[in-house]
Every structure is written in structure tokens, then in C-alpha cells.
Amino acid sequence: MAIRGSIIKSLIDLRDTIVSEPDAFKAQKDVLENLLEKAKETSFGKFYGFADILEAEDIEKSFTEKVPYFDYKKLNDRWWSQIHEGAEDITWPGKPNYFALSSGTTGKSSKRIPVTDEMIESIRNAGIKQVGALSNFDLEPEFFEKGIMMLGSSTDLQHEGDHEEGEISGISASNIPFWFRSYYKPGEEISKIEDWDERVERIAENAKDWDIGALSGIPSWMELMLKKVIEYHNVENIHEIWPNLQVYASGGVAFEPYQKSFMALMGKPIKVIDTYLASEGFLALQSNPDSQSMRLILDNGIYFEFVPFQPEYINQDGSLTEDAPTVPLADVEEEKDYVLLISTVSGTWRYIIGDTIKFTDKENFEIRITGRTKFFLNVVGSQLSVNKMNDAVQELEEKFDIKIPEFTIAAKRFEDGEFYHSWYLGTTADNSDEELAEALDDSLKNANKNYGVARGKALKGVKVTKVPPEIFPEWSGANKKKGGQVKMEKVMDEEKFAEFEKFVQKQLNEKD
């Protein structure tokens, strides 16, 4: 009998009955007031009059009127650069002990995002909420005695003067509570290995020594790790190595594009639980087993705002126009895309995190990530968002019974200057490029009125090129690094796409 597991499960169930969800609107107002109060004597707080905002009759409205939107470049150039030079009390009291390095999905250089002690505590609290939510997922007591494989970035953080730097998954893992360490795999020694391929090799070597019940990490890199373990031990599926695997906590990107190829590695069904941990904070988690959506965490040091995701409010670089309106939490609409803004205990203010989300259940504040602001392809009015692209690719998978875990797209020009969409699909399917292009085009026309109009006018064609799926992580590795928080670009500009095409051709030539 799983005595320890039964005790843990009972404690989680008891916590779930005692701890109730806060009043959402009061919680968010309290979070904003606490943020402003804490930061009112910082350079940023004085510049934007936080003390006056706190005296306003409508604090939330005053905050939106006095503080502009910030993307990373704007906030870093004007404010965070002072922290890098040693200044204190800039956007948050004191100086942060950590900086999260995030190249995200664009560019080779890393962003350096402050991570304060308060943010570490916020992430830890969100993790506890996630564990508590497991009481809703009908898991047997034995599950709570199994190991959890957390495939993030290296926990061997870089020491830079008076602080440490690393990806947020590595920072979080290096600060896990003492009581969790016996569950945490691959363990401290392997987790410190910087080279991703070497780390995965060590995981494969040790895999049979661990009784894994849950996985946690970004789908693309988790899938590659599972394939390596399966190949190393020459088995058919991962359940031959980890028979008690029951849960996968996905995060950072939509899981649906990876679902077919991911589940092909399983020997039996597992529960997929979505989480939303970004470099800027732990924003949402899935608490409802009957939904694929995540509930915003509204009482944990993060204040949320929402901007309608419409072409007239989005600049070419993915930033917001100055006149873009903000929708408060009380007025959001279901099934409508929004650009997400956050203000946090790490000193981000009205910060454009870069993700777009939609509310699937307004009453329970449940959301889904729908894409990235920089992945909005609107050349000649096609208005393609990532969720529309994902849906179309999933339709291809279903129609032809194939797997397409990765893709990327760009708008290119024929010699006469007319535009067409060029897709690269990561798949081993035997279908011709022309057949896939026609089906993809038809799917997008049916699902997106604007795309259909564009295809009848200035958008003159669709081209598909099939490439081996492993090309995509190899591209990420060549441009940034493997694993961790790195995500594949779904949309590229012409210059970046030209680099990608050269890379693909080189890789294919080397494989011949």
C-alpha cells in the first residue's frame, strides 16, 4: 500500500477543501495596490507618480492613464539598463538576485529580465497551487510517491557580480523547496550540465533507475528527450521504461500541434496538464481536468491587462500602438484574442509579454495561449494568427493521418513582386508538397475570412516544403541553444527566412 502517497494525497485533498479561490476583481485590485505601494519610492514609481495613483478614486484607471505600455527594449533601455550598471531601486526596491535569460523565439541575444526574491516566492506559490490542483485529476495515491522529470534549462547558473543569471526554469529548479528534492529528477548533478545533448544522454543512461510518474517541460524538447530514452534502451515506447508515468505538465506553448507525435511515444494514455510559466512569472495553471484551458492566477503578485489583438493596434515588430485600448478583466469577452500585459513583483510595468491569449471561460477566468504578437502574419491583409495556423496544420494531420510537430512560415515574393506564403512542415509524410499546400490553403480559406479575401486578390499562392522534423531543433540549437525555454519561430520575416532556408539546404546536403 502506498502509505506515503495516501498521506500526501489526503493533505492535497484537504487543502483543496479549505483553500477557496479569491474574489478575482478584488484580488487583482489588491495586487495592483500592493505593487504600487511597494514601488512608489523607486525611480520608476516617482517618475510615473505611483503615490498620486494610489490616492486616485479609481486606481486601476489612473494607472492605465499615467503609465505607458512597455516592451522589453523600451523598459530595458530606459530603466533596467541602470540595474545592469549597479543602480538600486529602479523599477523595484533594491536589486534582483537573479536575471532570467530569455531569447524567446526571436533573435540570438538573450533578454535579461529581473527576477526578485518576491518573484521566486510567487513562482513557488504557483507551484503549490498546481500541486493542489492535482486533487481534481483522479490520481491514485501511488502517483504521489513517484518522481517528477523536470526538463528545463541548466541549474548551473552564471555568476555575474552580485547576481546570478539563467533561464527561468533553471532559476526555479535551483530554488525548489527542500521537501520536493527527493521527487525531482534528473537530480541536481545532471541538471547542472549546460550542454543539452550531454544532459539528455545522461538522462537516458539513468532512466531505468527512476520511477517517473510525471513529466514537466516544453513539448518540443520533452519529445526529443523521450525519443532519446526510447532509442537508448531499444524499446517501443516510454512506458516500457517508466510504467507508472501518468501526467505530463506542458507549458509555454500550445500543446495541440505536438499531441499526435507526442502521444505516439506513449504505451498508454496519460493526462496532459497545461501550465503557463514565462520568464516574467508563473501566470496560469490548469485546474479543471475536463478543460484544456488554464486559470489565471490572480492573487499572486501579477496584475493583468488585456489589449484586443487587432491589426490596427499591432506594430510591425509586435509592439502595441500608443492608442491601443486596454480592456479590464471585468470586460473581457470569451473566444476573442487579446495581447497580454502584466505588472509584477519583479518590476515589470504594463509589460507586453509577447503572448496572445483568449478567454474560454470568463466566469472561471480560464484562458488558452493562442500565439505571439510577432507571429501575426498580416502581409496583404491575410491576418493569420498562430492559432489559425495550428488549427490548419492539425487538420492536415487528421486528413492525411500524418504527424507535423513543427512548422514555420513566411510571406515571400515571386519575381513579379506578388506575394505568396511559403511553409516548411516538419514531417516524414509521403504526401506531395503540392497536395499538402492545396489542403492547407483550403483549410485556411474556410477558417479565416480575411485570408480567403487576400487569396482572391494580392496573396497569389501557397508553397509547402516538407523537411525532417529534427531540422527545427537543429535550427534552434544553431541560432540560440537547445532545450530550456527556447521555442521555434512560427513566423519569420524574409531576411530570417532566407537564413532558415540556407540552413535547411545545408542540413539536407549533409544528410545525403
From TrEMBL:
Signal peptide limits: none
Domain of life: Bacteria
Stored Pfam families: GH3, GH3_C, GH3_M
Positions of the GH3 C-terminal domain: 390-495
Domain GH3 middle: 296-362
Identification of the protein by name: GH3 auxin-responsive promoter family protein
Organism: Zunongwangia endophytica
